[in-house]
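User: I'm putting together a teaching handout on how multi-component assemblies are represented. Below are the sequence lines for each component of a complex, exactly as they appear in our records. Could you produce the 3D structure of the whole assembly as structure tokens, so the students can see both representations side by side? Please keep the chain order the same as the input.
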Amino acid sequence: DAKTTQPNSMESNEEEPVHLPCNHSTISGTDYIHWYRQLPSQGPEYVIHGLTSNVNNRMASLAIAEDRKSSTLILHRATLRDAAVYYCILRDGYSGGGADGLTFGKGTHLIIQP
Amino acid sequence: DGGITQSPKYLFRKEGQNVTLSCEQNLNHDAMYWYRQDPGQGLRLIYYSQIVNDFQKGDIAEGYSVSREKKESFPLTVTSAQKNPTAFYLCASSNVGSVSNSPLHFGNGTRLTVT
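Assistant: Of course. Below is the structure of the complete assembly, with chains in the same order as your input.
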């Protein structure tokens, strides 16, 4: 299964942009890139996903490298409520679902300084 | 509002007892999943089910059992055979098929403590 690599932790200041990197050098052509975040003592929540093109939604933006071997989650203006663990995972869009690629690593612990 | 409900939020059991964790969803999702999370760690997949009356083992299925008799429900039993059952358990669901890139929806977890 294709795996992802993320930094263990990152720190940013409130109201500044945050760029969270993810490497996925063995990504296959049918893998979608998903991002989730988990607040303390809660279940993860979906943030954004994409295949090839950059994506924007109300929570964040996803920038995908041209070769798809890396991606970056962008929080445009971090708030204290954005402090969480952010997970980058790959999900096979061909297999019809199941558990393919649904491996959550340790993620990146994002710390926001006021 | 649609969502996933896990109950109870906290559960305490004595060693040697089986315990069943509840997971119910009203999102009309076909697929459901159980994950385990230990402190400071990522999520590890225990079992998953893509359709009623069918389920598959994940990476750490030993000591656990599941059933999928209804689309809405996917209970997880932690048996006495599970060597280290104390953990945070998360249930999730998603669509499958033509929307297989659809996101996972998670419940808020059950924290199980076995002493």
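A couple of points students might notice: Residues 46 and 58 of chain B are 5 Å apart (CA to CA). The mean pLDDT of chain B is 91.
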